[in-house]
Q: What sequence folds into this?
């Protein structure tokens, strides 16, 4: 980006270059070997709140790998997936998905900061003010006179089409049979996953004990596969769930319910 973005010697703030980068909430900074440590003080704008720094090691070789670090504003809450300490990532599809999840969750977390909440509130107020000032009519209509020739009793009622997957929008909890990964015991546990309008809960089928629960407001993101899903919450912790072969539709329903 640095090599192809506009550069003008006569303009010290480099506004043409900053226009391409400064309007983004999350910025990925790619560093080559031997570069100085990155500081956001040099390029940070009013919108940039999260910087994901990716540094390459052993470039142009079979042993190429990458290290990742994150710099965020103080009012941006922590977000997952967590970055292991002193770990480098090999070039792979797994690393690509990890990086994309980190960037997406970073933007979602930024919208929870006080600054962006205030901006969103102000924008909605302006839209409402525009509607009230420009699209509201003061004229009244006497429906009894103008439409007296219409016999409402003879009007044919339209058939209401049933909404597909309507149960996924209910207030109460919807449950699925899942297998949860217990990293402490290195074992899989058969559980019931329940997702309501406010809470997520895991109940062990054998003991009927609640082994996990959190508020839906604490969920910061998720990644899903064909028969598995990772749900990230609070400070980047995650639960790993999977379903049996042939139950791929359950994963789709879980994602739709979380949305």
A:
């Amino acid at each position: 980006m640095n090599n192809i973005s506009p550069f003008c010697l006569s303009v010290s703030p480099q506004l043409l270059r900053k226009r391409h980068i400064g309007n983004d909430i999350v910025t990925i900074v790619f560093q080559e070997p031997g570069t100085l440590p990155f500081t956001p003080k040099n390029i940070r704008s009013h919108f940039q709140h999260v910087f994901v720094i990716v540094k390459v090691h052993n470039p142009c070789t079979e042993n190429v790998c990458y290290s990742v670090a994150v710099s965020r504003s103080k009012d941006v809450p922590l977000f997952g997936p967590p970055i292991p300490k002193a770990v480098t990532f090999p070039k792979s599809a797994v690393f690509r998905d990890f990086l994309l999840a980190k960037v997406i969750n970073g933007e979602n977390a930024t919208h929870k900061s006080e600054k962006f909440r205030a901006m969103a509130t102000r924008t909605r107020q302006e839209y409402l003010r525009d509607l009230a000032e420009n699209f509201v009519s003061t004229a009244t209509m006497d429906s009894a006179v103008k439409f007296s020739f219409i016999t409402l009793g003879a009007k044919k009622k339209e058939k209401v089409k049933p909404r597909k997957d309507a149960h996924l929008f209910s207030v109460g909890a919807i449950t699925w049979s899942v297998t949860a990964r217990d990293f402490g015991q290195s074992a899989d546990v058969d559980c019931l996953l329940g997702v309501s309008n406010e809470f997520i809960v895991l109940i062990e089928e054998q003991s009927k004990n609640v082994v996990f629960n959190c508020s839906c407001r604490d969920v910061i993101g998720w990644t899903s596969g064909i028969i598995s899903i990772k749900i990230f919450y609070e400070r980047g912790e995650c639960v790993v769930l999977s379903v049996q072969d042939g139950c791929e539709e359950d994963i789709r329903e879980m994602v739709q319910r979380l949305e």
In short: The mean pLDDT is 79. The CA atoms of residues 94 and 126 lie 42 Å apart.
